[in-house]
Amino acid sequence: MIFCNVTRGFCKQAVVACFFLVSAFSVKAQENWSFTAQYYQGSILPHSKNISHLITNKPTGFLLSFNHRTTGDKEWHHMYRFPEVGFSIHTQNNHNETLGNLYGFYGHYNFYFLNRKLQLRIAQGVAYADNPYNKETNFRNVAYGSKLMPSTYFMICYDQPRIWQNIGVNAGFSFVHHSNATIKSPNTSTNTLAFNVGLSYHFSDEDVVNKPSSFAQHPMQMRYNLLFRTGVNESHIIGMGQKPFYHITAIAEKPLNDYGAAQIGADLFLSNSLKELIPFLATSFPEENMHADTDWKRVGVFVGYEWYLNKLTAEANVGYYIHDEYKKNGSLYQRLGMRYYVTPNVFGVMSLKTHFAKAEAFEVGVGYKL
Q1: How would you label 238-248 residue by residue, b for 16+ Cβ within 10 Å and e otherwise?
Q2: Are 341 and 366 in contact (CB under 8 A)?
Q3: Whole-angstrom distance, CA of residue 287 vs CA of residue 112
């Protein structure tokens, strides 16, 4: 059985974490709250040959979650069929001394389909690597260049609550991404695809759901956004140091319905790590055929979509560089992000800019929507 493969020490960590979470939550019955404990085992996907030496065993882990089913007090609860909001922690034993182990804390949404039997979870958080790259003691770990890193996971599973009193079962698949977005090099990252199985416990005998209220009519006219994003990152040359970047974005959007809006926009990318990398490559690596006067500034255009979800929204876009003399990352770029609206016009933003599996920048910033 797969449980026999779990080491005694790792199992003890999961039990302690579970006890801590359950103790922190009131043992008194709580309407619409549930707790889920899952075990998973999977494989690290070989998305880059640079991490092939790190994929020696199948990772195992535990995923512990608190979930709260929305009650219908707000319009979006009904629009998305009463999803759950919650937080989760995970522990992942990679069974590789060089790669080390991972521990993460996440906020998540659970969306339900097929009469609430099919659950889709989207989670974003922060993970801790206990044995990251070190040029003297762990130079082979090119996957994680820092102890702390952003992390995302997706999970789809069959969920059957309350099959015996308040205890239920669930099973499915998860995809966990660990990457520090090149905040510090190296950052080859890992993607884990796993099968998970677990038990759930509901703190009340039944969930409370309020009757639908009348929905407000949302404006459908064109709107315009201006965003400023910043952060620090490091080039792929280890040791060049972290440098700030500044990304400026203009967007025109057209709401399609109450669920979201289509976007078209343009980006200006000003990255100081690239500004220093270009002359370094020109002088130190002539085989790269890089000229010292190559323009480090880049301009892109993109199409995307903003998904409305209360004050918190999600966005995704795919862009094309119309000006990029560096040309080492290809012509296409992608961005996944989240917004939080402080007012109907002012919002904070957090996003990840990538070139497919290669992350370039973890961005934070502010925006204004007309």
Answers
A1: beeebbebebe
A2: no
A3: 53
DSSP 189: -
pLDDT in tens, the chain (370 residues): 443 444 444 444 544 445 444 444 444 447 899 999 999 999 999 988 889 999 999 999 999 999 999 988 888 888 898 999 999 999 999 999 999 999 999 999 999 999 999 999 999 999 999 999 999 999 999 999 999 999 999 999 999 999 999 999 999 999 999 999 889 999 899 999 999 999 999 998 888 888 766 666 667 889 999 999 999 999 888 888 899 999 999 999 999 988 899 999 999 999 999 999 999 999 988 888 888 999 999 999 999 999 998 889 999 999 999 999 999 999 999 999 999 999 999 999 999 999 987 889 999 999 999 9
Rg, Å, the chain Cα set: 22
Q: How far apart are CA 304 and CA 335, in angstroms?
A: 9
Sign of CA dihedral 275, 277, 280, 281: negative
Peptide bond between residue 186 and the one before it cis (omega within 30 degrees of 0): yes
Q: What is the largest CA-CA distance in the chain?
A: 71
The closest alpha carbon to 363, from 226, 181, 184, belongs to 181
Quick one: CA dihedral 115, 118, 120, 121, positive or negative? positive
Consecutive H or E run containing 279: helix 272-284
Q: CA triplet 340, 345, 349: central angle to 5 degrees?
A: 30
Do 300 and 269 contact (CB within 8 A), yes or no?
A: yes
The span from the CA of 53 to the CA of 49, in Å, is: 8
Phi, then psi, of 115 in degrees rounded to 5 = 60, 40
Environment class of 258 (CB within 10 Å of its CB; exposed 0-12, middle 13-18, buried 19+): middle
Number of C-beta neighbours around residue 177 at 10 A: 19
Burial class of residue 201 in the structure, from the number of CB atoms within 10 Å of its CB (0-12 exposed, 13-18 middle, 19+ buried): middle
Using CA atoms, how far residue 37 sits from 22, 25, 61, 121, 363, in Å, is: 11, 14, 11, 14, 32
